């Protein structure tokens, strides 16, 4: 992600070694990427239009953003060993003088969909586009709570002298600091991420750029290696959210059933509870359950919006989801959180050790770094 013409597409072309290929992503000084482009693995090079791409189960949910969005969605199939493990998503460049409605589809909602499912997010800047406008501010708003995924790239740094680079690096941090609400800022990689030689004016920084590139590639390698663990952890986080949501809704329902009476209108009772949940200690009671953290609960305002769509009077208590034989639904979720998902993680870890030993027995190194694909990195190493 990032402003237009900062080198996002060039970075992907470089990582995949397709810079001069017919199917490489378009790049240039002008805005060239107006689509969300999914780069995925296949037997031969080809382009896939959006309506065909969403037939892939991984991207079927994107249909909810409408046909106009599917016209701005493209898939590019490239046979590549790295794409056997991950997909790359190239996003439209951010242009601050463009209003979101001019895109013709819910840009922020689409960004959020990809952000929620991404293993790592690279936000690419260059020295000519450091200003933060409304659309970039919106993107960082979508990243709140997921800052651990974010890496910032200061691209095209070889076009600056060492003194200029110091000033630009400081300006980038200054502009981004109000948008990143975390104690530790994201990792910033500085360099020029394509296969061309570095500009001579940046010669004193050449060794720095090469080290930064190697670290970035190792970072990406670690993300790829740990992608299964990340997915398992993501499932557990969702299970915790489901459990917490069920407990909060159950508590609202419990209070509603206790407060309603023959002499009071149900809508009036519901409105009173939604407006003043603190009087009924709804969230305090939920926090008395083991392993429930207040930072993982949605706000009372969010539940007001939720109950506008699902009125409290139409809901059933959790006891109704307990079959005559077997465990209740909530108990099964708790079991998944504390036992089944952690055991799945352990099982995967043990299997990975076994697979690695098999590879090493055959004389293959177990986790070859991604930079084996980059000839110029290997030459400098």
The outline comes out as: globular
Largest sheet: 4 strands, mixed
Count of strand segments? 7
* DSSP strand content: 5-15%
Helix percentage:
40-55%
pLDDT under 50 segments (min length 5)?
375-381
Average pLDDT works out at 85
What is the H/E order? HEEHHEEHEHEHEHHHHHHH
Give the helix/strand class. alpha/beta
Question: What is the C-alpha radius of gyration, as a whole number of Å?
Answer: 25 Å
Strands across the major sheet, in which order?
A: 2-3-1-4
* SS field, number of helical segments: 13
The first-to-last residue Cα distance is 29 Å
Structure description:
The chain is of the alpha/beta class. Helix content is 45%, strand content 9%. It is built from 13 helices and 7 strands. The chain has helices spanning 8-16, 50-53, 67-70, 107-117, 134-142, 162-176, 206-225, 227-259, 266-275, 282-287, 300-309, 329-361, 375-380, and strands spanning 36-40, 46-49, 73-77, 88-90, 121-126, 150-155, 187-190. It has a 4-stranded mixed β-sheet with strand order 2-3-1-4. Strand 6 (150-155), helix 6 and strand 7 (187-190) form a beta-alpha-beta unit. Helix 8 (227-259) crosses helix 9 (266-275) and helix 8 packs antiparallel against helix 12. The protein is globular. 24% of the residues are buried.
